[in-house]
Design a protein that fits this description.
Blueprint lengths: L4 E5 L5 H11 L9 H4 L1 H4 L9 E6 L2 E15 L2 E13 L8 H15 L4 E4 L3 H5 L4 E3 L2 E7 H8 L8 E4 L5 H12 L3 E3 L3 H7 L6 E7 L2 E8 L5 E7 L5 H12 L3 E6 L4 H10 L2 E5 L2 E5 L2 H12 L8 E8 L4 E9 L2 E6 L6 E4 H9 L13 H4 L13
Parallel strand pairs: 4-5, 12-13, 16-19
Antiparallel strand pairs: 1-2, 2-3, 3-4, 3-9, 5-15, 6-15, 7-13, 7-14, 8-10, 10-11, 11-12, 16-17, 17-18
C-alpha cells in the first residue's frame, strides 16, 4: 500500500509535535537550547505556531514543516502584505524525498492566491533561488569603535543616559518602546503584548536607554554583545548618547550595527563617525506584486535621495502574473501604474528581482542611466522581524 501524503496548515494540538520536529531537525537537543527559546515570538502557544506552519505528514507521521508568517509592512504611506518563510524543516530520517519542495511550493501558491505583495526568508542562495527568491535590498553594516569615540568626542565622553535590561514586568517601558516603534515610517506590526517576546528573539538581549525616567531609545544585542540586531532612538538628539551607551555596556572594543539608509539621522551619524562600513543585500526576497512594491519602496527612496527624472515602461513575466508597468519620476515624485504602451525592457522574474532589488543586475546595465539611481530598491527587514 502506498504512503498517503497530506499537507495543510497545522492545528493547535500539533504544537508540541511541531516543536519536537524542529528541535530534532536543527539539532537543538539541550534544555534551554530549543526553538521556543530562539524564537519565543513565534512558538509560544499564544502565537499559534502550528497554525502558521504548513505541515506534511505521511499516514499521520509528521515529517516536514515550513513556517509561513504573515505581517503588514508599513512603508511611508503605503501598506504591503508580506509573508515570511521560516523553520524550513524535514526530519533527518526522511530527507531526499521532495518533502521540502512540496511544502515550499504550497506556501508560494498560498501567498499568490491571497494577495501577498512580498515575501522574505534567510538561507542558502541557490536553494531558494529555485523557489524564486533573490538576495536583494540594501543594508549597511557599521563598525563603531571605542577609538572612534576617543578621536571624535574625546576620551572623557560618556553617555549621559542610564541603562536597564528590559524585563517582562517593565510594562511602561514596553509601552513607550511600542509607541516609538509605531512612529517610524518603516515598520511591521509589533503589538505591545508581543514586543517583549519580539525583542528576545534570536538569542537577543534588549536594553532600554533612560534619561530622567523616560525611554530615549533601546538596543538589542547579539548574545555575545558584539553587535546589535537593532537600535532605535526616540529623537535625533538622542542618537549619540544611545550609541555610546550601547558601546559602553557591550564590554567590547567595537559593536556592529546594521542600519537602513532611510533611517537618515542614525545612518548619517554612523557614516560620519564609524571606523568603516560595508554595504550589501538585506535579505532574500521574492516579489508577487511588482506594482505595489516598486511604488512603496521607490517613494521611500525619495525620503533620503533625490531621484533623477525619467520614465521606464517595463513588462515583467512575474512569479504570480505578468505585469506591464509605467514607472515615472518627476521632481522626486513617484508614479507607478499599469500601461499598455510598448515596453522599453522585458524581464523574466529572476531578472526583474535583480533589476529592481539587487546591487548587481545584468539587465540594468543596458537600461537608461536613471535606472541606476532609482534601483536597487531599499528592500529591508530589521533583524528581529526575521522569521
Amino acid at each position: 500500500m502506498s504512503d498517503y501524503i497530506h499537507m495543510t496548515h497545522g492545528k493547535a494540538h500539533q504544537r508540541e509535535a511541531l516543536l519536537d520536529l524542529l528541535d530534532t531537525t536543527f539539532g537543538f537537543n539541550e534544555e534551554g537550547n530549543k526553538f521556543i527559546n530562539l524564537l519565543p515570538k513565534l512558538y509560544k502557544e499564544q502565537y499559534h505556531p502550528a497554525e502558521n506552519n504548513i505541515i506534511l505528514d505521511v499516514d499521520g507521521d509528521m515529517r516536514a514543516a515550513v513556517g509561513l508568517y504573515y505581517n503588514t509592512l508599513t512603508v511611508g504611506d503605503e501598506k504591503l502584505k508580506i509573508g515570511g518563510i521560516g523553520n524550513v524543516a524535514v526530519h533527518p530520517d526522511h530527507r531526499g524525498k521532495g518533502y521540502m519542495q512540496f511544502c515550499m511550493l504550497l506556501a508560494l501558491d498560498e501567498m499568490k492566491q491571497n494577495m501577498t505583495d512580498l515575501s522574505c526568508l534567510g538561507g542558502a542562495r541557490q536553494r531558494y533561488e529555485h523557489f524564486s527568491y533573490q538576495p536583494a535590498g540594501i543594508n549597511t553594516s557599521f563598525n563603531y569603535r571605542k577609538d572612534n569615540v576617543k578621536r571624535t568626542l574625546g576620551s572623557d565622553r560618556k553617555s549621559a543616559y542610564t541603562i536597564k535590561k528590559l524585563e517582562e514586568t517593565d510594562t511602561q517601558y514596553i509601552r513607550e518602546i511600542t509607541e516609538i516603534y509605531n512612529s517610524r515610517i518603516f515598520r511591521t506590526e509589533r503589538p505591545e503584548e508581543a514586543m517583549f517576546d519580539i525583542l528576545h528573539s534570536w538569542n537577543t538581549v534588549p536594553y532600554v536607554a533612560l534619561h530622567n525616567g523616560e525611554v530615549k531609545g533601546w538596543f538589542a544585542y547579539y548574545s555575545d554583545k558584539s553587535g546589535l540586531h537593532e537600535l532605535f532612538c526616540k529623537n535625533e538628539e538622542d542618537i549619540e548618547d544611545v550609541i555610546l551607551l550601547a558601546l559602553e555596556n557591550s564590554g567590547n572594543e567595537f559593536i556592529k550595527i546594521n542600519v537602513p539608509q532611510f533611517d537618515k539621522p542614525l545612518y548619517n551619524y554612523l557614516a560620519l563617525n564609524c571606523e568603516f562600513y560595508d554595504i550589501g543585500h538585506a535579505e532574500h526576497f521574492t516579489i508577487f506584486c511588482y506594482e505595489n512594491v516598486i511604488r512603496a519602496f521607490l517613494k521611500l527612496k525619495t525620503t533620503y535621495q533625490n531621484l533623477p527624472d525619467g520614465e521606464l515602461k517595463v513588462f515583467i513575466q512575474g512569479e504570480k502574473l505578468p505585469e506591464q508597468l509605467k514607472i515615472t519620476v518627476k521632481d522626486n515624485i513617484v508614479s507607478v501604474e499599469e500601461t499598455d504602451e510598448k515596453p522599453d525592457i522585458v524581464l523574466k522574474h529572476l531578472e526583474a528581482m535583480r533589476f529592481f532589488g539587487s546591487h548587481y543586475s545584468e539587465r540594468r546595465q543596458e537600461a537608461p542611466a536613471f535606472c541606476n539611481a532609482w534601483f536597487p530598491l531599499p528592500l529591508y527587514g530589521y533583524g528581529l522581524d526575521n522569521v
